[in-house]
Amino acid sequence: MTTINQKLKVATMTFFVVMVSIGVTAKQKDKAYDIEGALCELDEAVAHYSDFERNRIAEIEQKKQELRHATFDSDRYLVMTQLFDQYKKINSDSALNYANRCIKLAERCHRDDWHKEALLNRAKIYTYRGNLMLARQDLTTIGNIDFLPHPLQQKVASALCSFYRAFMSNDMFRKSKLHADALKSMNINWQAVPDLYLKDSPTAYFRAKSYVGLDCRSDFDKIKAIYEKEVNKPGINNLGYILAQQYLAKGDTAAYKYYLVKTVNNHIRNVYKCADAMLELLSTDWLLENPERAYNYVTLYSSDISRFQDARRSTNVVAIQNHIVQRFIENQNRLRTSLIVVVGVLLALFAYSVVLMVKLRHRMRKIDELNGRVERRNKTLANTIKEVEHISAELKTSNERLQDELKLRDGNFMDTYLMCSDYIKMHRNFRNTIANLLKTNSVKQAIKQLSSREATDAELKEFYKKFDRAFLSTHPDFIERFNRILRPDCQYTLNEEKELSPELRIYALISLGINNSVNIAEFLHYSAQTIYNYRLRMRRQACIPESVFAEAVGHLYEDDKLKQYLTMGA
Known about the structure:
Blueprint: H1 2-26, H2 35-47, H3 49-69, H4 73-87, H5 92-109, H6 112-128, H7 132-141, H8 150-169, H9 171-175, H10 177-185, H11 202-211, H12 220-229, H13 236-250, H14 253-269, H15 276-282, H16 291-308, H17 311-359, H18 367-439, H19 443-451, H20 454-474, H21 478-483, H22 502-511, H23 517-524, H24 528-539, H25 549-554, H26 559-569
Helix pairs in contact: 1-17, 2-14, 3-4, 4-5, 5-6, 6-7, 6-8, 7-8, 11-13, 12-13, 13-14, 14-15, 16-17, 17-18, 18-19, 18-20, 22-24, 23-24
């Protein structure tokens, strides 16, 4: 009996030693850099992202308090510029708002330096959002850079670098002769732009040099020295990203991975929502070796760029997200297969032990004891099989749910871009019509066409239909949940066309987290006063206190919190 147990233990240990050896061998790569350690730090940063974001919001709120108490125009301009700097990496709408406010203040105070600086800030936001022609318009307005103070020259250079990089990375703009001519018309010596930073900021110099497409390979040692010396200074990771690119060009993939991950980690901790480093990391094949990790990263990034309204990166991240989700599903399937194999091996080992014990049963004096042991092991095996079957069923359900979510998202994605395509087509036809009228000197007809709102109203109506369909497909129980916080005599039902009323559309957006009336008005193309009237009328139909009505809508899908609000109205 002792010999049999020893053989069984040896076989079991051999199996697990082989499995562990495979894992250890796979981790011998890239040992010169602690890439896995850097990824673990990044995982921690992603897990605590909400804390970083909360701290950033707290800083913004403090600045808003300063703005409310500012008494001088100079103080107001300074605080609004600081608010722009806070928002430019997390919310493009808010950043654009403060840039425009700075422009209006500068015009009112007749401060040309303020005006130019605010125009530069607005151009950066237009660049981030992919509105390159609007960005070019603001940059062109600045005038001759040679006559500006040096600090303002550097800000112009920074904006120009961002614009040039976005321009050259956009195939549609880069290949278009119209836009290429527009770039040339700015009459800027792009290769001379980095020299504006050479004296005051070597870090910004190398970053600008990289942005305008100049070769930095000869500067590699300088870049690395500055990075290692100033690694803890704000903004140094922009240089870290350039360093990663240089390592990639050298063929040192381990160093490239390490510095790329370190750069993304810094961007996450500083709540930088539109970072290219994260997009590049998500595009790498080696990250998909851990689909669960990649899925967490892309989920965070897609949420950030959606809220930032970064059109240039949104298209790229959708394809990456689909690929990662598919790899995640494949990984789950492989895990299920591996689990079945492990269970099979365990069953084989168990069967082998039973055979050995049966062969030697004539040597055992306590047959009842042996049968009892076999019975207990059989029960354990049966429980193991049940657990495996349960896990397999859960995995199947999870896969089906993910497939449904993919189909729904893809459908909404295609509807959105088909609508954009239709709008572009209608816009092109309209422009051609106006052009033909003007060519034939039919000015009155052209003015009539331009003044007509029929086409716009039709497009807006179609937009509402598609929004209603997309929203109700992802929130089919919205009407039911919304009616819970309304009086019985004020309940809503959908019409035959399954269309939302204006009031319901407003509160559908509030349920998605868009609570600002100005933003809602811009999205639905209503006036701010109309939004206010709709919201006021709806609050008066509530069965809960009016003061918490909007807050309750924001927590419509949190049953515990919704019950608390309903209790307040009882």
